[in-house]
Amino acid sequence: MASDYAKFVLALMVWREMRSCPKAWRMVIWTVLNRANARTPAGRPLWWGGTVLDVVLKAYQFSSMTAKGDSQTVEWPLANDPQWPLIVKEVDTVLNTDLVPIQTDATHYFSYPLVSPPPGWGPCHLVPGGDFGRSAQFYVLDDAHALRTEVPLPPGETESH
Question: What's this model's pTM, rounded to 2 decimal places?
Fold first, then answer.
């Protein structure tokens, strides 16, 4: 269960990243959840973190939240923004009900001005229902090499199998 703060941060990220494309909101939310839920065979989180907050606030995962120079990092919804309450409701719906089916296995997406996945992603494929034109394209990586990098163990700890 995500805290109210985690829900707020996730909603802010969705608003900053995708407020102009309501049809993609749930896909963005699931992209974050897929990253947060991804685990190594030993059950440890992958490099991007093991919670909603870890994922959203990790440097350069979502440029609107952490990338220096991204114009969205200083944007905040105004009290009368019509999209904000709808995004908050969508986040709450996805996080607080078992009735919302997983919509995607996407762990990555890009939007305009990019026109194709960045080369650093390696081999990947567009997920079913993941094409929102210039607004967003949702992908899953084909090569598990990107998923093998784990969050480092704290100093002095060893992996138990």
Answer: 0.83
